[in-house]
Design a protein that fits this description.
Blueprint (H helix, E strand, L loop, with lengths): L1 H144 L6 H6 L4 H85 L9 H52 L3 H21 L19 E3 L2 E3 L2 E3 L2 E4 L5 E3 L4 E9 L3 E10 L2 E10 L1 E2 L6 E2 L4 E4 L10 E8 L9 E2 L8
Antiparallel strand pairs: 1-4, 2-3, 4-12, 5-11, 6-7, 6-10, 7-8, 8-12, 9-11, 12-13
Helix pairs in contact: 1-3, 4-5
């Protein structure tokens, strides 16, 4: 047994020695190759890792840049909103100051007229007093010539009869009363003259005060105008900066939250608008039915009246009635709208920029410009989706309309003020606000958009308003 184990062990060692030498030789070559591959893989991994690192760095740089741009955009938007608020306040102050100036001018004009009238009255008083003085002087001269007494007794005693005595007594009393009245009137008008002179002086002082006040108001007005010009200049500068960065002026950017809020409100407004349109249609149908019923009643009454006539008269009457009925049937149909699409012009003034390519992008609406203030009107019956101040659109109103089974959306931007609120039902032609230059705008105008269907941030439903509105 031991011998067998020894043989097996010897054989095993021999086998091991036989196969170990070649394997050791192969492993040495393979190790070199593997090490080389490992090195290459490590280099590739390092290269990939470096590229990934560069991509991550580029990504971080881009995100940083986007964040910075967004911050700059928000800063400009805030500044534009602040300037728009200041512009509105300054314009309101200018309007108030203009009213004050006009009121002061009216006061000055009134004072000047009153002074002119008082001077005329003073002149008349002086002439009357002068004449009365002359009369009184003559009376005094006569009294002095008669020794200081008027011989009233001699006049009375010289009467030839009782009737003559009565007449003379009456004449003497009249003369005495006239003298007394002249004296009293003279004193009264002298006092009136003094009072009017004082009144004129007071009016002159008031006039001077109002003139100084007017000069002060004009100075304030000029200061406000300078402030307004400065604010406009500042906004123009911001707009130029914005234009350079955005490559266009009217790119309506908004936050995702704001867009979602508009879409939510739009859904509510569209439901309300559809219900309004249905009710309006039902009301019109009821009105037409009532009109048709009234016409039918009138026709029947006309037929009854014609039955009492002879056959020829009846035939003529029936013919006339049928003709009348035919005419009545034709007039039941409502007259066509002024515009086949049902929209009216939202504002007066020339179209300064049309729909389509502009500044390397698409202008999603049209611009209507006009100097001064102009009322902005609803282009059709509808419901206000949203009435707000937007950094880009300024004072803006979104409306939804439902006509002929189709929904439309209109947008009215850059108004100086708004006169409707979110959710409000509005009739065609009803004022929405006043034309202005708020938001991303450098001049007074209305930016008007029309969308077939609902509004969306990409404005994919925007169409040329000129196809629906007569401009």
């Amino acid at each position: 047994m031991k011998k067998i184990k020894g043989i097996v062990l010897t054989t095993s060692i021999a086998c091991v020695l036989t196969f170990t030498a070649p394997i050791s030789t192969i492993s040495a070559e393979s190790i070199n190759d593997l090490n080389k591959e490992i090195n290459e893989l490590e280099q590739k991994k390092s290269s990939i890792s470096g590229k990934e690192s560069n991509v991550e760095q580029d990504k971080q740089k881009t995100q940083t840049k986007l964040k910075k741009n967004r911050q700059e955009q928000n800063k400009i938007d805030s500044e534009i909103q602040e300037i728009d608020t200041k512009l509105s306040d300054t314009k309101a102050k200018i309007e108030t100051k203009t009213e004050e100036i006009n009121t002061t001018k009216q006061k000055i004009e009134k004072n000047e007229k009153e002074i002119k009238q008082l001077k005329k009255e003073i002149k008349d008083l002086k002439e009357r007093i002068k004449k009365r003085d002359k009369l009184l002087q003559e009376r005094l001269r006569t009294i002095q010539q008669t020794g200081g007494n008027v011989q009233y007794m001699e006049v009375l005693m010289g009467a030839q009869s009782f009737g003559d005595f009565v007449d003379r007594a009456s004449a003497v009393n009249t003369i005495m009363d006239q003298d007394k009245a002249i004296m009293e009137k003279q004193e009264e008008e002298k006092k009136e003259l003094e009072e009017k002179k004082k009144e004129v002086e007071a009016k002159k002082k008031e006039l001077e005060k109002e003139k100084k006040n007017l000069e002060s108001q004009k100075a304030e007005f000029e200061s406000l105008k300078q402030t307004l010009d400065s604010q406009r200049e500042k906004k123009d500068k911001l707009m130029n900066e914005l234009e350079k960065k955005e490559d266009k002026l009217e790119k309506h950017k908004m936050s995702l939250e704001e867009e979602q809020e508009i879409l939510r409100q739009q859904q509510e407004a569209m439901q309300k608008e559809i219900q309004r349109a249905k009710e309006a249609k039902q009301a019109e149908e009821d009105k037409q039915k009532q009109l048709a019923a009234q016409r039918e009643k009138e026709r029947q009454q006309a037929n009854k009246s014609s039955d009492s006539n002879d056959s020829s008269s009846n035939s003529s009457s029936n013919s006339s009635s049928n003709s009348s009925n035919s005419s009545s049937s034709n007039t039941i149909t409502a007259p066509p709208a002024a515009n086949s699409k049902g929209f009216i012009r939202p504002a007066d003034g020339p179209v300064t920029s049309g729909f389509g390519p502009r500044w390397g992008t698409t202008h999603p609406g049209i611009d209507i410009g006009r100097g001064g203030s102009s009322t902005i009107r609803a282009a059709a019956d509808g419901t206000v989706i949203r009435s707000e101040y937007s950094s880009s659109y300024g004072n803006v109103v979104y409306m939804t309309h439902y006509m002929g089974g189709t929904s439309y959306t209109t947008v009215y931007a850059h108004m100086s003020s708004r006169s409707v609120s979110t959710g409000q039902t509005v009739k065609a032609g009803q004022p929405l606000g006043v034309m202005g230059s708020t938001g991303y705008s450098t001049g007074v105008h209305l930016h008007f958009e029309l969308h077939v269907g609902p509004w969306n941030g990409a404005k994919s439903n925007a169409v040329n308003p000129a196809k629906y509105v007569n401009f």
